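Hi support team,

I submitted a single chain yesterday and got back a structure, but I'm not sure I'm reading the token output correctly. Could someone confirm the output below corresponds to the sequence I sent? I've pasted both exactly as they appear in my results page.

Thanks,
R.
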Amino acid sequence: MGDPRRLKKKYSTPRDPWNEAALREELQILGEYGLRNKRELWKARSILRGFRRSARLYMALGGEEKEKRVSELINRLYRLGLVSENATLDEVLSLTVHDILERRLQTIVYRKGLAPSIYSARQLIVHGKVLVGDRRVTIPSYLVLREEESLIKLRESAKKAKEEAA
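Hi R., thanks for writing in. Yes, this is the structure output for that exact sequence:
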């Protein structure tokens, strides 16, 4: 019959949806990163908000608990490629939505030159032409881990089609 639990949104919408400056900024970010709709941007902001909220909470803690939690957070963000290995909580608090969007598979495929545009990068991913390691990933918003970044490649069929088109 379906899942009995009620699923909740993974994002929150802006408080002032018709703020002209915010609308212009969102539209510019959508174009820069090839996002399909604002919901994708709002999800990235929610991810960032969670990291920053954790950092603020851990700043208020004291003793061993603080060090343990901070090191776990820094390790997670390091694995995601968002901060350096010996980062501080101030660096976590200075992260922006651009940092999160730069770690998306769609952006990395484009930046590596595997696709001629950010939009074609999205199409390659959705059509299953991109491999991360040996796995086919069809989610453009997949956050690429630092160790996976070097393992991103096109499938053989996509390489052949690219060569024939050239």
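A quick pointer for reading it: DSSP finds eight helices and three strands in the chain. Let us know if anything else looks off.

Best,
Support desk
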